[in-house]
């Protein structure tokens, strides 16, 4: 009886801690959504509030009344984020597959090179990257925000580490004996096994690409090519004209796709955790 009571007490404590952490995680989003319905004066007087106000339509009017079009920025961000996420996850998984499955002389050296590139901050290479893009006359091209993301050393490293215990080489060899082509084996055997890892990296890649401000701010000068983070940063105006309500509304609109992507892909992450616990 005492043992059951102790177990019940532990479960209650764990449950309370989980609820507290969940509330703590959701609180910034709640404050952001509530502030999108408040006026600038209200936000300046009380930055934190859980009571919605009646200035949502006014903030929306200010947001839509700017010189840029938030809808265009939303579509540009969506095109860049979705395309770069799909390409980065696919080719990173393909690269990891080549490192794990095939045996070739420079395999370890190639993987070491990937790890070395992963240690280099992106800001260091940005000047040279901009000079290259400028010489190619592609400074206002969304393609230059997509192509560099495809080569993701961190994602390759993660995929390799996940693939080594998850993908059995005997399955690959059996597929070869049955006459399956290499790309068929990768697309129909390796990719389904890698779904949890792909879902995890897809979330990270989408969030990073969607929230990316620095690179688009350097490369893009045409308002028709602006991504949503650039437009949100322009809402601040100068120190005397900042409309904080519209800024919070823009941030809320920016966060919505991230929540949707997480909800769509979270089931694969949960399935992968459950599968790992069963294997363990």
Care to give the gist of this entry?
The protein has 280 residues and is mainly alpha-helical. It has 14 helices and no strands.
In CATH, the homologous superfamily of the domain at 66-234 goes by the name MetI-like
CATH class of the domain at 66-234: Mainly Alpha
Query: Strand count, sense and closure of the main sheet?
Result: none
What is the beta-strand fraction? Answer: under 5%
Radius of gyration: 24 Å
Number of strands: 0
Helix content: over 70%
Write down the overall geometry. flat
Stated plainly, the CATH topology of the domain at 66-234 is called MetI-like fold
What's the rounded overall pLDDT mean? 83
Uncertain segments:
276-280
Number of helices: 14
SSE topology string: HHHHHHHHHHHHHH
CATH architecture of the domain at 66-234: Orthogonal Bundle
Structural class designation: mainly alpha
* Terminus-to-terminus distance: 30 Å
Structure, explained:
Helices cover 77% and strands 0% of the residues. The protein has helices at residues 2-35, 40-45, 56-64, 70-101, 107-118, 122-135, 143-150, 153-166, 169-177, 182-193, 195-210, 214-219, 228-234, 244-279. It is flat and about 70 Å long.
